[in-house]
Structure formats: structure tokens, C-alpha cells
Amino acid sequence: MIRIDGIKERFGEHIDFEERAAALLKISRAQIREIKLLKRSLDCRKKPLIQTIYSLGVLVNGKEERIVRARGNENIRLIDPPALSLFQELERRGVPLAKKPLGGVRVPVVGSGPAGLFCALTLAYLGARPLVIERGGKVEERVKKVNAFFDGGKLEKECNVQFGEGGAGTFSDGKLSTGIGGSLAAAIVAEFSRHGGGETLAAESKPHIGTNVLPAVVASLRNEIASLGGEFYFDTRVSDIAVSSGRLTALELEGKKSGALDCSAAVLAIGHSARDTYEKLLSRGVHMQPKPFAVGVRIEHLQRDIDMCQYGLADDRLPAADYKLTAQIDGRGCYTFCMCPGGEVVAAASEEGCCVVNGMSGSARAGKNANSALIVTVNEGDFGEGVMDGVAFQRKWERLAYAASGGYAPPVQTLEEFRRKKSGGGFGEVMPSCRKGAVPADINSCLPEYVCSAIVKATDAFARKIPVFNRGDSVLCGVETRTSAPLRILRGEDMHSSVKGLIPCGEGAGYAGGITSAAADGVKAALSLLKK
Predict the structure, then answer these.
(1) Is the peptide bond before 479 cis (omega within 30 degrees of 0)?
(2) CATH assignment of 87-287+497-531?
(3) Residues 227-245: what's their mean pLDDT?
(4) Torsion of CA 157, 158, 159, 163, to 10 degrees
(5) Counting C-beta atoms within 10 Å of the first and last residue's C-beta, which end of the chain has fewer, N or C?
(6) Is the pLDDT of residue 532 over 70?
């Protein structure tokens, strides 16, 4: 396949891909067999002039190498056609895939977030008949329980925004962009597309699915795994592990399925909020170490203001604009994270007496507000060097947020009030979006002083790029503490932990950050079992 990069057109204007490709390759249209849109992005550097930049994949009649060589253009090169599925990517890598489920003992996969699902899917392709053990419910039931919680219902400790099929990313913006790159990441995005994430998903420069679409995608992945011999235990928690002579011998289950499950290998894809599992693993001698993470708030602006800052014009045809901002403040990293264009702030608790927030967007990103985490890095010097000290640090501020608001609805205040360490003055144009509710309170009481100070300074620094960022009526919601795992479950080059047979992976193990990288780590965990 010939790849052509850097094809530009003014946003909104029609482009004939076949005509443009033929002209650039200096061939006739009749020689083109197929054209595939590989990538599409917006160039806003000369706003309000907005351009769309395309990359095309072209299959031609004739010798592609000769055509590319004749052009001598760095934007025209030969590539292998991108994989259309994870199965195709594994096949290309020479992985021995099974034509039907094989016999033998099932491999347990603990957790059904992106890491767990893609680990299980890979194991199913290998014929290994995975057994997925999920403490929460099926995604269909989970959506009902989460919506009930948002609308005033009680917190379900085992099935909530953090726990349940699909993982925490199910209630997010559904971003699939990642820094890892490579053919595996591309195949994972293609797999999400194949399961209903959208036909053009793989072509977007910043692919996202949206929280309204993700549940159906997750259910489709589950159905494929089951069709290949996999099995799911929902509403079932791994409460303990059995170890003999440094090797895993069994998992102890509680819930709908209970008792000892004998196994010599299991994949841990538990997510970053399974604090009880961390504690149990530590007590069983699994080696872990604390790691830096970040805490802060969610900040909300009007989406139309963000659009104007990023595009320099108002045009309903343009997608809701996003941003990604970083700064060094007083020796700490401050940055925006998981920005949700046209989204809403969500109450994301998973423990009683703890208040925590996250953000999510639908596929259309059509909400009135934009929101993003605005967070500050913390490390062992702030929370201690014990393995569970980062977890204790998170809990401390989540409990203070709960006390400040009197429940799971987040404490909120305007940025101007936050600067003055006061609350209760009302809101301006920007209104809180959290369905669970919003309680006026001083968030300064819910975070360390050095974090609050850095947040204020960061808003001024970020306003140099997005002028509305430090607007006084911007709304802050607290607290954002679950940005990443506060510890890492140590593993060797073979991906096994200090307990042989126990393979930690994904975001909860401290080896990924986001849906695609977690899914990729799950695939690698499955392939590590093949080597054994």
C-alpha cells in the first residue's frame, strides 16, 4: 500500500480523494484499486483558517515501489496495510492462533476493563478459554445502577463508576489516543471500531467513542470472547490468593461464585481503585512499590468559549474543541487530564464516605460545558514511602470532600471563590454539570495547600494559551484523585509478579494510562502465558 500524508483542504470543503491521489502519484484514476482514509486531523495554527489534513492509503495496479520511487516525496511512502482487527495483527506477528477452543484448564482473568477484556480476547484467540472474574455486574446492569446513583440513588460498592464490566473508562470520554503508538495500538483501535465504536474511528487523530456508545462495544467484546469458549463470572470478587513455595495455587472467590478456584496462573487486571485487592496482595507477599500520581479538581468552562479560543470562530460543523495543557509550578508538574469536550462531571465514588469526581462525554460531545481534570503531581515525599501510603493519601482527601459536601455530590465553587478561599457566592454563566448534584463548599479544605496554590497559578499560566481558562466564574469540582494507580505491582520481564503465575497488567498494576495502553498491556499479558 502507498501512504500519502499531508493532503490539506480548507475545513468543510469537499475533496475528491481519488483525484487528489492520482495527481500526487502521477497515475490515472483507472490505476487506483482502492483508497482508504488512514488519518484525519484539524490544523488550527492559522486560526480562524481551519484546515483538514488527510493521510490516505492507496492500492494501485502496477508496481507500487516504482511509483513511490519516481515521486521522491517524503510524504509518499510504502507501508503494510493496517490490520483490520486484533486477530489479523496477531496473525501477522506469527502468533499460533487456534481454530477452535482447546481443552485443559481455563486461565482466570481478574477484571473486565480494557486490560482484562483484551487479555481474555487474546487468550480466546489462542484457544485458551479464558475465565473472566468481575467483581461488578454486566455492563447493561452496571449502566442502570450508575444512572440510579447519579439520579439520587445509593452507592453500590461493587458496581459503580469504577467497578463493573468495561472498567472505569466506560464512564469517561472514551478516548483511545495513546502515546504508545505502533501496530498493536492501531489494531486495538480497529478492534473497538469493529465492535461498534464507529467506522472512521481508526482514522481520527484523537479517536474517542463516547460513554453512550461504550457499553454496547463492551458487550460486543464479551459476546465474542464467549463465542470462542470464554466464560464470565460477574458479581464475583477475588477476596484472596493461595500461594505455595512462591507460586500461585488458587484464587478465593466471594459473591455469586464462591470458594477456591485452583489455578497455576492468573492475570490481574483489577483497575486502579481495587484498594482491598492491593491490601490482600501485599499481605500475601506480592511485591509492590508506591509511585507518583496526581490530584486536584475538575474545572468547567463553557464549551463555546473553548471553541472560540481554539478555532477563532464559531462554526457548528466543527467538533467540540479540546485542549491539553502543562506547566511547571513551584517544582511540581501541573496539567490538564482526560479533557471532556461537551461533557459532564460525574460523581465517581467506589467507597463509602469518599467523594471523588471524574468526567465523561457522549459521542456527540454536545453538552454545554467543557470539563477537564486540573491536577498536580504528588510523590512519596508528600504521602510516604509505604506501599499503601498513596492509597491512604487519596482516601484522606476524598473523605474531606465527602465531609465538605455532606455526601457523594461533589463540593463546588467558582475559581474566583477558590482564590479567596470562600464559598456560597453563587455561580455565573458556567453552571455545574454534575447530575448527582453540586454542593457549594470551599475545596481548599479538601486538598493539600500546595496543590491548591499550584492550581491557582496553573489557571493563570494556562490562560496564556486559552484566555478564558482563568475566568472567575469557571467552576471547580472536587476532588479528582483517581488519575492513575498510586502504586505499581512489580513484575519481571516475563510479566510475572514476585508470586510466580500471578501476572499483573493494565492501569491498576501501574503499567498503563488510558484505555488503549491498558488494552495493549492486556494483550501482552496473554502472550506472556503463551511463552510458558
Answers:
(1) yes
(2) 3.50.50.60
(3) 98
(4) 110
(5) C
(6) no
Q: Domain extents for the chain?
A: 2-81, 87-287+497-531, 290-480
The answer to whether 332 and 454 have CB atoms below 8 angstroms apart is yes
d(Cα 516, Cα 261) in Å, to the nearest integer? Answer: 30
How many CB atoms lie under 10 A from the CB of residue 111? 32
- Which amino acid is located at 489 in the chain? I
Cell numbers found for residue 485: 494507580
Question: How many other CB atoms are found less than 10 A from the CB of residue 1?
Answer: 17
Report the alpha-carbon distance of residue 115 to residue 130 in Å, rounded: 13
Q: Which residues have a Cβ under 8 Å from the Cβ of 160 and sit 6 or more positions away?
A: 136, 145, 146, 149, 348, 349, 350
DSSP secondary structure of 306-325: HHHHHHSS--TTSPPP----
Q: Please give the torsion angle defined by the CA atoms of residues 431, 434, 436 and 437, in that order, rounded to the nearest 10 degrees.
A: -20
CATH number of 2-81: 3.30.70.2700
Please list, in sequence order, all residues whose beta carbon lies within 8 angstroms of the beta carbon of residue 449, skipping any fewer than 6 positions away: none
Q: Give the Cα separation of 492 and 503 in Å (integer).
A: 9
Sign of CA dihedral 164, 187, 272, 238: positive
Burial class (CB in 10 A: 0-12, 13-18, 19+), 242: middle
Give the CA distances from residue 71 to residues 3, 8, 35, 81, 104, in Å, rounded to whole numbers and listed in that order. Answer: 12, 18, 18, 20, 55
Distance CA 347, CA 342 (A): 17
Q: What is the CB neighbour count within 10 angstroms for residue 384?
A: 13
Residue in the block written with cell 520481564 = 493
DSSP code of 99? S
455/376 Cα distance (integer angstroms): 7
328 within 8 A of 525, measured Cβ to Cβ: no
Side-chain-facing half-sphere of 351: CA atoms under 13 Å: 20
Residue type, 433: S
Helix H or strand E segment including 395: helix 389-405
* Model confidence pLDDT, tens digit, residues 286-345: 999 999 999 999 999 999 999 999 999 989 999 999 999 999 999 999 999 999 999 999
Separation CA 230–CA 253 (nearest Å): 18
What the block records as the C-alpha cell of 11 is 475545513
Q: Which amino acid is at 28?
A: S
Q: Grid coordinates representing 376?
A: 498536580
Q: Which three cell numbers stand for residue 246?
A: 512462591
182 or 260, which is more confident? 260
B/e letters for 279-309, b = 16+ CB within 10 Å, e = fewer, are ebbbeeebebebeebbbbbbbbbbbbbbbbb
The pTM is what? 0.96
Q: Which three cell numbers stand for residue 524?
A: 501482552
Three-state SS at 41:
strand
When pLDDT is averaged across residues 429-438 and rounded to a whole number, the result is: 98
